[in-house]
Amino acid sequence: MAHDVLPEGVGAGAPEPTRLIRDWPLWLLLALDWVVAAWSLPRLPDPTPLHWNLHGRVDQWGSPSEAAFLLPACAVAVYLIALGLSVLQGRGQAASRTPGEAMRQARWILVTACSGMHLALILGLVQGETGSPRWIFLLLALLLMLLGNLLPRVEPGVRPSAPAEARDAWRAAYRTAGRLLVGAGLLQACTFWLSPAVFTGILTGSLLLAFLAPLVVLSSRLHRIRTQAPEAPAGEAGTAGPLLSPHDGVAFAGLAGLLLLQRILGPDAVPAPLRWAIPGLLAAWAILLADAARPAPEEVRRTANLIRGWLILGLAAGTACLRLQAGGPVLPLVMALGCLHLFPGLAQARARRTASDAARRQWGEGPMPWDPNDPRVIVPKGLGLGWSYNFARAATWVLLLGTLGLVALVVVQRGAAGA
To answer: Maximum Cα–Cα distance for the chain, whole Å?
Structure first.
C-alpha cells in the first residue's frame, strides 16, 4: 500500500547504497528549504513566533534565525539519521530488503513532512500572520496516515532463532498499530477545527489506543505461544525471593532526598504536580516490588531487585532536576531524562558483570523485546541494530510512564509560570 503514495521506484529493488541516487528529489527539497530560510531571514519580524499553544496564542518567541533555520536543520538531521539506519540495517547478518524499503519510504515521508511544514510556516510569517496555524494538524494527520500505511511493511526485528509464531505475533502487532495510526490520522483530520479541549482529548485518546492496543495483541499472542511450549523442568522454574533487598534502601534514600527538597523549598514554591511525586514513586516502587516477588530464576530475581532501587532513585533525581531554573525548561528536562536512564543502565551493567557464566551465555545476541525471563529493561534487537525496551518487565513500564510524567511536569510548570 505504501507504494501507492510514493514516487515510482521508491523502496524497491537493490540494496540501499546502490540506489541512493533515487533520493535526489529529497536533496532538492532540502536545498529549497535552506534557500527559502535564507530568503526569509531579513523579512521576518523580530521577535518571531516560534510556538503556539492549543488555544491559538503564541507561547514562545525567538529570533528570526531560529524560525528560519530550526526546521531545515531538523529535516537534514532526520534524513541523515534515517539514511544511517538504512545503511546499517542492510549490513546485518539476518537483514532483509524489507526493513531497508520501509526505512527508505519513512525517509521520504518524514523529510517531506518537515520541509512542507517549514515552507508553509515561513511563508505565513513573512506575510505577517501570527495566529495559530491550526492547519498544521492536517499535515500531522497526513503524517500519521502515511506512517500507519507503512508500518505493516516493517519486518519484525526478532532473533533469527525465534520461532515463526513469534515473528507472526509481531507482524500482527504492526498491522494493528498501522490500522490504528491511520484511524487516528483520519480522526484528527476530521476534528482539528473543534475546540482545543475537545480536539486534545480526541487526539490523546486515539494515540494512546494506537500505542496500547498493539501491545495487548502482542502480549496475548506471545503468552499463547509460551503456554503451548513444553513445560520447563522443575529445577529451572525458580522460586519467589525475598520481598526486600539492600537496593531498596537506595530507593528510599532518593525519596527522602526529594521529600527534603520539597521541605526546603516550602509548600508555596513547589507546584502541585510535583507534590504528587512522592506518592507516585511509592506506587511505582510497589509495582516493581510485586513484579520481583513472582517466581523467577535466581538471576532474574536478583537483577530485578537491583534495578528496582536504582530506577526509583533515578526517577527521584530526575524529578529534583526539574527544580533547576538555569537554561529554561530544556536543561532540566534533559538532565532529568539523563538521570532516569543512567541509573537503570548502571544497575544493568553491574548485574551483567556479576552474573554467572551461564546467565551471560543466555543473554548472548539479545532476546525479543518481550522476554519475561530476561532481567534487563533495555535489550539489543535481534537483528543486532539498535536497542529496545523489554516490555515484559514491569520496570520498563515504570520507566516509560516516569518519562512521560517528567515531561508533563515540565509542561505544567511552564503553563503555571506563564499564567
So the answer is: 75
